[in-house]
Design a protein that fits this description.
The complex is a heterodimer of chains A (116) and B (112). Chain A is an all-beta fold and 116 residues long. Chain A has no helices and 11 strands. The mean pLDDT of chain A is 91. Classes of the chains: A mainly beta (116), B mainly beta (112).
Chain lengths: 116, 112
């Protein structure tokens, strides 16, 4: 069964450092998302990406965050200067159709980011 | 308006019991209501979903009840099993390429 894969599974970084989280969405999917989950809390939307551009972003997704689809298979989330409050599990998701209302979102297993 | 309120925060039931998890929303533009199941160390996975044109949907032991006038929907798990122990999230979204808004999750424990 096709799946969304994420790397690394866990990254520890110092405050102020740049972090890149990588995702390989399911190959025939067109819509890509990043969500995050602070430990024990709800899953929060960060950004959606379609046709090589951001289609929607939340207030969490400020100038410190960026996304890229550099080579047609990977989908990356970059945090330029990490803060302690960026510590969370980051989930990549993809869908074949516009996943919110008409199709299933497939989530990866997540990348746990710990900022010290 | 964008929030989905979920309760309870945690739930413990005996094997064979019927746990019920409730969600409420404010935004009447929401028209897709999925439930996601998350096991420890894994990403959320779609369990079952409903649209507001029906009041109930059943898939195996899982049933969604939907009350459009009350803006509430709930998940029922029939004949619950220890393997159902997980965190369950309700979610909602509007038509088009709009992101899912998740509830805070319910940690369910089914004890033998």
């Amino acid at each position: 069964e096709p799946e969304v894969t994420q790397t690394p599974s866990h990254q520890v970084t110092q405050m102020g450092q740049e972090v890149i989280l990588r995702c390989v969405p399911i190959s025939n999917h067109l819509y890509f998302y990043w969500y995050r989950q602070i430990l024990g809390q709800k899953v929060e939307f960060l950004v959606s990406f379609y046709n090589n551009e951001i289609s929607e972003k939340s207030e969490i997704f400020d100038d410190q965050f960026s996304v890229e689809r550099p080579d047609g298979s990977n989908f990356t989330l970059k945090i330029r200067s990490t803060k302690l409050e960026d510590s969370a599990m980051y989930f990549c998701a993809s869908s074949q159709t516009s996943g919110g209302a008409t199709g299933e979102l497939f989530f990866g297993e997540g990348s746990r980011l710990t900022v010290l | 308006q964008q929030q989905v309120k979920q309760s309870p925060q945690s739930l413990i039931v005996q094997k064979g019991g019927i746990p019920i998890i409730n969600c409420a929303y404010e935004n009447t533009a929401f028209d897709y209501f999925p439930w996601y199941q998350q096991f420890p160390g894994k990403g959320p996975a779609l369990l079952i979903a409903i649209r507001p044109d029906v009041s109930e949907k059943k898939e195996g032991r899982f049933t969604i009840s939907f009350n459009k006038s009350a803006k509430q929907f709930s998940l029922h798990i029939m004949d619950s099993q220890p393997g159902d122990s997980a965190t369950y999230f309700c979610a909602a979204s509007k038509a088009g390429n709009t992101p899912l808004v998740f509830g805070k999750g319910t940690r369910l424990s089914v004890i033998a």
